[in-house]
Design goal:
A five-stranded parallel sheet has the order 1-5-4-2-3. The longest helix is centred in the C-terminal third of the chain and has 12 residues. It has four helices and five strands, in the order E-H-E-H-E-E-H-E-H. By secondary structure, the protein is of the alpha/beta class.
Length: about 100
């Protein structure tokens, strides 16, 4: 997986729940299992970045995806990749750190 110039929507940390409600989207946590075990946002699904693109088939391409990680860096890369694959993908700005959860 490589980075590109594709842009994705940037969702402020304080609006993640509103974004999911407004779009009917899913929350995708792309951290590693050890990080996941330390806590995540309610309702999120774990598909770690290191497993992309192999685990791409586990996502519903008809549903918007809000991607989250610890600080927003990995989630930005994955959100761009998903957008390139035809998904409506957004990045949670600042990740779990911005929410005081990491």
């Amino acid at each position: 997986m490589t980075t590109s110039t594709t842009t994705v929507e940037q969702v402020p940390a304080t609006r993640w729940q509103e974004w999911l409600a407004e779009t009917g989207g899913v929350l995708l946590d792309v951290r590693e299992p050890l990080e996941w075990a330390q806590g995540t946002l309610p309702g999120s699904t774990l598909l770690q970045m290191s497993g992309m693109p192999g685990n791409l088939g586990e996502l519903d391409p008809t549903r918007p995806v809000l991607v989250v990680c610890r600080s927003g860096n990995r989630s930005q890369i994955v959100a761009r990749y998903l957008a390139e694959q035809g998904f409506r993908a957004a990045n949670l700005v600042g990740g779990l750190v911005a929410l005081g959860l990491a």
